[in-house]
Amino acid sequence: MATIATPLQARLLAVRTRIVSASTAAGRAPDSVRLVAVSKTFSADAVREAAAIGQRDFGENYVQEAVEKLRNTVDLPLVWHFIGPIQSNKTVLLAEHFDWVHTIDREKIARRLSEQRPEGRAPLNVCIQVNISGESSKSGVASTDVTALARIITSLPRLRLRGLMAIPENTDDPDLQRQAFARLRTILESLQRDGMVLDTLSMGMSADLEAAIAEGATMVRVGTAIFGERNR
Length: 232
Description:
Blueprint: H1 7-25, E1 34-38, H2 44-51, E2 57-60, H3 63-72, E3 79-82, H4 91-97, E4 100-104, H5 107-116, E5 124-129, H6 146-154, E6 159-165, H7 174-193, E7 200-202, H8 209-214, E8 219-222, H9 224-227
Parallel strand pairs: 1-2, 1-8, 2-3, 3-4, 4-5, 5-6, 6-7
């Protein structure tokens, strides 16, 4: 691994250490948790800093900003994840440029992504976003509607349903954090019992990744703890 040379790289290393510690405490292998570095609002140069010490997965919320960043880092072997709200008029850009989309919450979006995924690319990895805390301000499908949407997505030829994603209600209480993440894990397990081959729980961010890992997260999406505070 390259020498740690910048504050960003030091913060990234600290997050990796947290993931190892949380995984070990949960009796899990550290490599069972994938770190998605959320680089929204930060430059392609910041992505390169993180990539220089081995970070490969990056998450973006804003489609047009992300596409420009992808084009400026095309020489790097990166995996790009879209983790923001999806507008119908932006699905073609997602289908063409991204490796993962974590935030599908309606049939219309899923069908557009499948139809617009280029033939020459592997199926787009997707997750269903679940509004696990029932907040009116949050995107995501209701827990009771996940199974129906999952069945539709698994029938679409250019998508590969990998699992579920959630952003629970913000709280500093570790017990409440774990309860929310446990609800998402329970839904995933129900889908698996129905015969769906799913392997991804995308949950946990800078402030609650330990609770998420304790409840089975396979991906954590960390921005602030790596890149610092954002301007927007």
